[in-house]
Amino acid sequence: MSDEGWSRALMAASGVPVAAERRDDGVRALVNEARADGLGAARIATLGAHRSTEVREAIAARPDCPLAMQATLVHDRRASVRVALASSAGLAVAIAGVLSHDREPSVLKALARNAVTPAVVLETLAAHRREDVARLARRSLEGAVLGSGTPGAQELEDRADAARPPAAGSGPGSPAGGRNPAVLAPRPQVPPGHGALGRP
Fold first, then answer.
1. What DSSP character marks residue 14?
2. Alpha-carbon distance 138 to 99, whole Å?
3. Residue 11: C-alpha distances to residues 5, 6, 17, 20 (Å)
4. Phi, psi of 8 (to 5 degrees)
5. Where do the structural domains in the chain lie, given as residue ranges?
6. Contact residues for 109 (Cβ-Cβ < 8 A; gap 6+)
7. Distance in angstroms (rounded) separating the CA atoms of residues 123 and 103
8. pTM: predicted TM-score of the whole model, two decimal places
């Protein structure tokens, strides 16, 4: 082992951080900053152009990532950055359209799974030549249709209550439930001065 190798091993054993560890700590700090709330637009632009893939991924995944930054990151050379963008809750419609033509299947799958991906983009992906991508897009489309037309739990409960006959003693209905109350003939009245059998 060379003298440099021995010195690095000694430093690592003694707990003294080496350059690579310091660099990793610096990248982690930047990633945390890129994920933080309330990050200004100028800082987002700076971190979005950082040489570290992890930092760019964190910026791409931000729900408040500006459109201009999305337009830059959509052409990032690293697929993982484009996957983060395709998965973002703040993905712009125009950027989703660009990503739908990406050559990387992982990007297309992330786009198909994203709840904010527009239906027109999902329809494009549903016709993709890769069956795994098309299947995911079709599932998302079906989920969107079911979600918009399926009654909620409260609506189903209201329908069931309306169809159920009233409970005994809870309303004007008879104890048999669901039937109208019986209508009886009026009781005959005896005029005053007549006996019990109606004779004078």
1. T
2. 17
3. 10, 9, 7, 12
4. -65, -40
5. 3-148
6. 132, 133, 136
7. 17
8. 0.62
Question: In terms of C-beta density within 10 A (0-12 exposed, 13-18 middle, 19 or more buried), how is residue 40 classed?
Answer: exposed
How large is the average pLDDT for residues 25-40? 93
What does 138-169 look like in DSSP terms, one character per residue? HHHHHHHHHHHHSPPHHHHHHHHHHHSPPPTT
Least confident interval from 46-50, 77-81, 85-89, 152-156: 152-156
Token reading at 113: 């799974």
Beta strands in the chain, from DSSP E residues, in sequence order: none
Report the C-alpha dihedral over residues 49, 78, 29, 110, rounded to 10 degrees: 110
Q: Could you give the CA distance from residue 91 to residue 87 in angstroms, rounded to a whole number?
A: 8
Q: What is the pLDDT of residue 53?
A: 96
| Alpha-carbon dihedral angle through residues 103, 105, 106, 109, given to the nearest 10 degrees | 120
